[in-house]
Write a structure and sequence with these properties.
The chain is an alpha+beta fold. It has ten helices and eight strands. Helix 3 crosses helix 6 and helix 4 packs across helix 7. The radius of gyration is 19 Å and the shape is globular.
């Protein structure tokens, strides 16, 4: 085992033990965090710091959530982990994360502010409740992607980053700040049973995956593409006819070609581990994995 893996394992074990001693629910009772949950917390803390480095943050707003395995049958289940309101993405630690029930009950208030932002709960609980396959959900207000979401054209199949996921994109009409619980049903319906990217019109992108790495990688693809598209639209003065847009048949062929290439590696996982290295170099493992 490498020195780095040993260091991470040490943080996981030590952090879990410390967390078990200090974690409390909103009611003040002790909450025990399993080793699996603590490892998940460490990965989610990495995701928040990586999102900060990628520019997917808006001060103390926006969220990344992940479902706690085995919590479906528990009271208020399923549970998911979410950042406490008031922290920058760059300040989130493994121990500061809230554990929240699908009904908004705070199971574990973490070690920071303990505040749950209602808008974040509404958006993320909508997806976690409707899609059992989406264990992780990422939502942000990345500026170029929000700009694309404000156009009638929406996401165009202009880049190699997006053509492979173009048929996995859904749209949800703008309803203002997410404060209405009834919007959850409409959001889930517009996402549908299979798509993994939801463009909240005039609002921002949302991605989901079975793992944190998958959801983060999808966010990387859609935000990088929208950076290209925003610049391309500006370059042609907003005249879509001047853009080199592949035909629907060409897009379908490119997507099909990608599906036939069964790689012996997982690009999402590899990308996430590269983010982990960047995050640990930037802030140090002691900061990221702090209980």
């Amino acid at each position: 085992m490498t020195a780095r893996l040993l260091a991470v394992q040490r943080h996981l074990v030590a952090g879990r033990r410390e967390a078990e001693a200090i974690a409390t629910s909103a009611g003040g009772s002790k909450v025990t965090r399993s080793e699996d949950e603590w490892a998940l917390r460490c990965d989610l803390a990495v995701a928040y710091r990586a999102a900060y480095l990628m520019g997917w943050h808006q001060e103390v707003f926006n969220h990344i959530t992940v479902k706690v395995p085995g919590s479906e049958s528990l009271p208020h289940g399923p549970h998911f982990l979410i950042n406490p309101f008031g922290l920058q993405f760059s300040e989130v630690t493994a121990g500061s994360l809230l554990r929240v029930g699908i009904d908004g009950t705070i199971i574990d208030k973490g070690t920071a502010t303990g505040i749950l932002l209602s808008q974040g709960f509404i958006v993320h609980s909508a997806v976690h409740a409707a899609r059992e396959d989406m264990h992780c959900v990422v939502h942000c207000h990345h500026q170029p992607t929000v700009a694309v979401a404000m156009t009638e054209a929406g996401v165009l199949p202009l880049s190699q980053e997006v053509v492979g996921v173009f048929d996995s994109i859904s749209y949800h009409p703008f309803e203002g700040t997410a404060l209405d619980l009834s919007e959850r049903d409409r959001m889930a319906s517009n996402l549908g049973p299979k798509n993994t990217i939801l463009i909240l019109e005039n609002h921002g992108p949302l991605t989901g995956g079975r793992t944190i790495a998958q959801a983060m990688f999808l966010m990387f693809l859609i935000t990088r593409h929208c950076e290209y598209q925003s610049k391309a639209m500006a370059a042609v003065g907003g005249d879509i006819s001047k853009l080199k847009i592949p035909t629907p048949e060409a897009v379908a062929e490119m997507a099909a070609r990608k599906d036939t290439q069964k790689a012996a590696y997982d690009p999402a996982k590899l990308q996430f581990e590269s983010w982990r290295r960047k995050v640990e170099t930037q802030w140090g493992a002691d900061s990221v994995y702090a209980a």
